[in-house]
Structures are given as structure tokens and as C-alpha cells.
Amino acid sequence: MSLRTPVARARGLGSAREGAHHWWLQRVTAVAMVPLTLWFVIAVIAHMGATHAEMVAWLSHPLSAAMMIAFVTAGFYHAALGMQVVYEDYVHPRWLEVALIVGTKLVLAFLAIACVVSVLKIAFGG
Length: 126
Fold this sequence. Notes:
3 helical TM bundles of succinate and fumarate reductases; 5 helices; mainly alpha; single chain
């Protein structure tokens, strides 16, 4: 019995050195989401019962608009990273895994862009 790794069979199946990078990105976006989510929840509570005009005025402030854009982009990016991990772990046909990852990233990118454009439109009075 040999304890040597069968190199020929394992080639291309090991670490591509992307796992640690992906793991760090997931953690960084999670840490970024903590204060952004707290800000968002506090802002929603503070503006309960506000009129449409008051909300537009609040979101037109540069700090509010910047925080909302940061919240949206970090949230969608974090979601894309998380869904990719789920697909990689639980979807076994490779073609379906790739299709789901690409589809999810496209949908989330579109939604993130739509949210950012909406915030910018409100912020600049459009």
C-alpha cells in the first residue's frame, strides 16, 4: 500500500488558490454589512410615517445617498458570493452549477445597478 498521492489523477482537481480569496471577500462584505444594516434599520425607524417629500429630501442628502449605495452594493455582492458557495456545494451537475452562478450574478448585478440608478435619480432630483 502506497501513501503517495496519485498525481496524475489529482491534477486539476485541487485548490486553484481562489478559495481563500472568496472566503475573505465573503467575510469582508459581511463585516461591511453590519454597520450598513444598522444604519439602514435606524434610518427606516427614524423615518417611519414620513411623507414622500421628506424621504426624497433625506435621500437627496449626499451622505444618505452614499450610505444607501454602499448598503445596496455590499448587500448584492455579499448575496452573490453566498449563493455561489451554495451552488458549488449542493448543485452537482457542473453545467447546472455554472448556469446558476452566471444567472444569479447577472440578475443580482442588474438589480444592484437598478437600485444605484434609482438612488442617484432621487439624489440628483430626477
